[in-house]
Amino acid sequence: MDNNTDLPLDKADLLERIHREWSALLQTIEYLSHEQMTRPGAGRWSIYDHVAHLTDWERYLVRHHLRGCPSHDVLQIDPALLQPFDEDRINAILHERHRSRTVVGVMEDMHRTHAEVVAALETVDASALENPGPADDLVSRPLLESIVYNTYEHYQEHLKAIWSIVGTS
């Protein structure tokens, strides 16, 4: 995270920020055509690719950070490929997996995974947010920072790229 002083004040603030940025993301993508969803942008990723990417990392958040499943199991990646941590390499592997999926399937997975994240976060004890991540965490940081990075900050980051693709429609 760029600025730890901008962390949510409490769990209610965290959930509100997630909801607000998720709503902004949905307002941008929900009614796009198949052609708009699959047209590559400047970085060669389509909106479909951005949605699949966000879903992968939300899944990682809930299953690894909140449920304690090993990183390599959640990501379905050989543990040797996770050391040393190379986010670009991991993202390339995850990106390649989605090539044969339908837009409808990716969107359904996005909604299902996000609902899973929100439900899991609603049950997290606020005191646990300052705990360190799991021992095999790819990036060592407190749980709260991992949640922020894999939810609303991540939506904001990818929404900028999505807007640039939508703007070329």
Explain what you see.
This protein has about 170 residues and is mostly helical. It has one domain (about 30-75, about 85-165): dinb family like domain (Four Helix Bundle (Hemerythrin (Met), subunit A), Up-down Bundle). About 60% of the residues lie in helices and about 0% in strands. It is built from 8 helices and no strands.
What does the radius of gyration come to?
16 Å
User: Architecture in CATH?
Assistant: Up-down Bundle
What's the helix count? 8
Number of structural domains: 1
Task: Detail the poorly predicted runs.
Answer: none
- Return the average pLDDT rounded to an integer: 91
Helix content: 55-70%
Pattern of helices and strands: HHHHHHHH
Shape: globular
Give the termini distance in whole angstroms: 32 Å
The CATH topology name reads Four Helix Bundle (Hemerythrin (Met), subunit A)
Strand content bin: under 5%
Please outline the helices and strands.
Layout: H1 11-29, H2 34-38, H3 47-66, H4 71-75, H5 87-97, H6 103-123, H7 143-150, H8 152-166
Q: What's this entry about, in short?
A:
The protein has 169 residues and is an all-alpha fold. The protein has helices at residues 11-29, 34-38, 47-66, 71-75, 87-97, 103-123, 143-150, 152-166. It is globular and about 45 Å long.
Annotation keywords:
Four Helix Bundle (Hemerythrin (Met), subunit A), 169 residues, globular, mainly alpha
